[in-house]
Structure formats: C-alpha cells, structure tokens
Design a protein that fits this description.
215 residues; calcium ion binding (chains A, B); homodimer; 46% strand; Ependymin-like 2 (chains A, B)
Chain lengths: 215, 215
C-alpha cells in the first residue's frame, strides 16, 4: 500500500514537473495580422498585412517594402500546395502567375528548439498589463541560420523572430495585431481577372517560406 | 430645448473622442524588474535587475555589462535627491561613494511626445494571449536625440525605449518581468560597510538619467 502511494506521489511530481516545462508549439492554423521585418543593415524594411491558412497552405499578403527612400507595394496570394502564387495589380486589373517550389513551413517553434527563457512583457501585477512569453533558440542546417523566437505562453502566438545567417546578417521580424481566425476567407479567392494571368517564371526561383516569399 | 440636447450630444461626442485618444502617462512610482540594453554597433549589452522608487528618487541596479567577450558586474545604489551613488562590492565589503549632478527623470512618456500607434503584441482573441500597447515618438533637445517608446495602454508599464542620437547611434532598451511595487524596500538601504565609503569623483561627471547612470 505504502509503495503504491509513494509511486503515485512520485509520478504526480514527475508529471507536474513535465507539465511546467514549456514545449515547442504550433501557432493557430488560421491567423490574420501584421508583420514588420527589419532587414540587415537597416536600409530595408517590410511592413505587411497578412492572412494565413495552415490547413489549405495558403497565404495572402499585402506588403509595403521600403528600401532607403523608395517604397514598393506588393499584393500576393500564395498557394503552397499548388506551388504557384499570384501577383495582383488592382490598379490595372492585371495578375501575374508565378510557379515556385517550396515547402509550406507553418508558424511554429521547431521541435528541436532549445527553451531559453520564460518572461513577462510588461507586468503581471494587474490584468491587461502584461504578457507571458517564451523565447526559444536553435539552428536551421538547411539555411545555416541561427534563430531566436518569442511566442506567447498561452495560445502560441508569434511575437518576434530573429534569424542570423552565416554572414552574421540579422533579420528581425515582429508580429502584431494578430487575430485568431479569418475575418474574410475570400481573401484567398483570386480576383476574376487572375483567370487570364500571364505566367512568369521567377528569376531566382527561391521561395523557401513565409518570409522569403516576399523578398 | 433642441439646442440644449444638440449641445449635450456634441459635448459627449467630443469628450468620447478625447477619452479615446491615448495621453502621455507616467509609470507607477514603485517598480521592480529587468532591463536589457543593446548599445550601438551591437558589441555592448547591458542586462540589469533594478528597483525603482520615483517618490524618494532612488534606484538600485545590479548590472551585467558585456563588451564583446568581457563581462563586468556592477551593483549601484543611486540617490538622485542627495546627488550621490554608492558602488557596492560585496566580495570585499567595500563601497565607493560618488557625487553626481543629474535630475531624476521618472519613467514616463514626455508631455510633448507624439502618439504614433496603438497595437497589440500577440492577440486579443483570447485572454492572456495579447497586450495592448501604445508607441510614442519625440525629440529631446538637450541630448539632441530622437526617441520611440512603447508602453502598455493599461498601467503605463514600459516595454521598449529606442533612442537615436545625433550620430545616428541606436540605444535599444527592453523592459521585462516588471512588478508594480517593491518586494523588499531594504534594497535602498546601503550595507553597513558603506558608512565608511571612500569618495571618488566621476571622471566624465555625466549621469543624466536612469540609463546613463550605468554607462
């Protein structure tokens, strides 16, 4: 009897400890929000509004890319499963269809990421004054890049992602105004004038993920 | 009667609009927390644990300053009203008293700051997944520096402060794990061995505020 009790207590202590340890998580499958990306050397910034569907593997982004004083607006609808994206130009009702070959990388903490710290942005002294987050670090062999990611403890919502490539160049991405769900799923339906879209091959052929799709 | 009704309606619309506009705010007078500062060029970082008392105008900081691979630990107790600070060395029970001449600048949004944006870190789609914050920008003529500050909408808790000086050097400060109140007010009482502290003048004499006190 005593052995059984001891075993039960030990097991619950162990389970309690395991439960406390943050685990890599995946962001909700449907997300809408904004993203700010600061490119190395600080000359280029990207500000985008996006809708993300990890179930059908499609992303819609309207991005404003600033390079020094030049600004460019791009509206793209990416279908990762079908391996092409549309570049949509409403001003002249034209559309360009570009094939690309890339795996869909959902917004998530990689399974082999190392938990760095749990901390509070702001304060938990009163409601609505703070946010409990976790930071994770790791290395991606394919791109030879180190990353540091901060996601919320509850809901696995991305906050910041910093990647540092081989050349020690930093790419800093900051997410905000995220909404779980899709306010208007029609953003994934291409406008009618895209049915006659011209097919244009990408020069570099590189669309590795969510971020590089816009570079 | 109709005029009175119209006036009442107009007044409440105006007051409603004014109430919605975020106003510069002051952080709580007692705070404890952590601060990370990234100095220009990225070679120097400062990580500190601090206790802040804006009523008595005193700050206690234990800071770890990393410059490339060198690390230095500093423990300081600053009395802004009395215009001196102690540098405390527990390892050999010694203490250095240094006079300084600087105004106490409380943690706050300057009155003439310009409201830039209100945004959510994370998501407000579910409780504990997001934080509503405001960003403010402005210019400090004394130090010829531009600043960009992010504080929580509720509670006026600092999140980040970015200052850019004349030379376009960026100082990025990030606050976290803040607690409103003082867990142990005794941190402001100098250890007994400080009564016989040696007085040493600062070479540069510059202690302008909360941050420069540590540079």
């Amino acid at each position: 009897m005593r052995t059984l009790l001891l075993l039960t207590v030990s097991l619950s202590v162990l389970l309690g400890a395991l439960a406390q340890q943050p685990h890599p998580c995946k962001a909700p499958p449907y997300l809408e929000g904004k993203l700010f990306v600061l490119f190395p050397e600080g000359h280029t910034t990207l500000f985008e509004q996006f809708a993300y569907d990890a179930v059908e593997e499609r992303i819609r982004v309207v991005a404003s890319i600033k390079h020094d004083s030049q600004e460019m607006i791009e509206d793209r609808l990416l279908f990762f499963r079908e391996r092409f994206y549309y570049e949509i130009h409403y001003h002249n009702k034209s559309c360009v269809k570009t094939p690309f070959d890339a795996q869909f990388n959902p917004i998530q903490i990689p399974h082999d990421a190392h938990h760095q710290a749990q901390f509070v942005l702001g304060s938990l002294s009163a409601p609505a004054e703070g946010l409990l987050v976790n930071s994770w670090v790791g290395y991606i062999p394919e791109t030879k890049a180190n990353y540091s990611m901060t996601f919320t403890e509850f809901g696995c919502i991305p906050i910041t992602i910093l990647t540092t490539d081989e050349k020690k160049d930093h790419f800093f991405s900051s997410f905000f105004d995220l909404v779980v769900g899709l306010e208007n799923p029609e953003v994934f339906i291409p406008p009618s004038f895209c049915t006659s879209a011209k097919v244009v091959e990408r020069k570099d052929g590189k669309v590795a993920d969510f971020f590089s799709a816009l570079r």
